[in-house]
Amino acid sequence: MELEDTSRIEDVLDVREVNEYLSSGWILIQCYVGGHREQGTTAAQQPHFILAWQHKDRDPDYPVGSAAEQRHQEMYEKLIALGTGEIELSAGTVSALQSRGIYTVTDLLKTSESKCIELLGARRAKEIAAKFDELNLSLGSFFADESAEAGTSKVIKEDYARRKNELHEQLTDALSSILLGEKIPLDVVNAQTGEIIIPANLKITRTRLRKLARAYDHVESDPSPIRNKIREIIGEFEPKFAELDLEHERQIDKIETGEAFQKAGEK
Questions:
Q1: Residue with more model confidence, 244 or 159
Q2: CA-wise closest residue to 75 among 259, 256, 265, 263
Q3: Of 92, 98, 136, 226, which is most buried, counting CB atoms within 10 Å of its CB?
Q4: pLDDT digit string, tens, across residues 202-235
């Protein structure tokens, strides 16, 4: 790649951080030793690594947690908080936007280009799209990310429900191995709802055992050897349910902590 392909330059001082930049697709174009003053000390020699981003087809990928990434995020957050009158749009376009309740760059990020045309006409929509190109933003990108996020959330929830149902069926099979077709001299109750899942002295069906499996963490009955056996079987499955629940919570947290927001910022 040629130097004229460079779209961004970073001066990095830490060797470990340099390796992270290189892994992210940056190119080392220069290295030199210069003065660097630490607080409370005299000047000392400090290596400087000059890295270039030369991928014109996409925005720079900054190493997670790097000072550059933090600066980039801070600049992006300030940019999207700007009012529509602060990004050099014509007065007529700003007035038209505000009359339709669109006051900030964030509002525009939630408005698709087709919606802009519908609201403002093709000429003003073209002006806004051109300005967004200059700012390296995309009209409607928040809306697109929210739609993708909703789709991702739906897939996660469906997968969680499917895997939990599989565990319920496996627990039902395990309970069936000792209880199916049997009668027991005590009621087994859902302690949360008060429902009698398995009535005393009635033949136990798979339907009742499936109910028992689904209420595994709320099962209550009088002390007896059969209660101990039920608890033993359920106890083997409890870590599996707990692990599945924890994994599901982590996946949902990843969505809710703003990854979609960050993706919009990369556009």
A1: 244
A2: 265
A3: 226
A4: 999 999 999 999 999 999 999 999 899 999 999 9
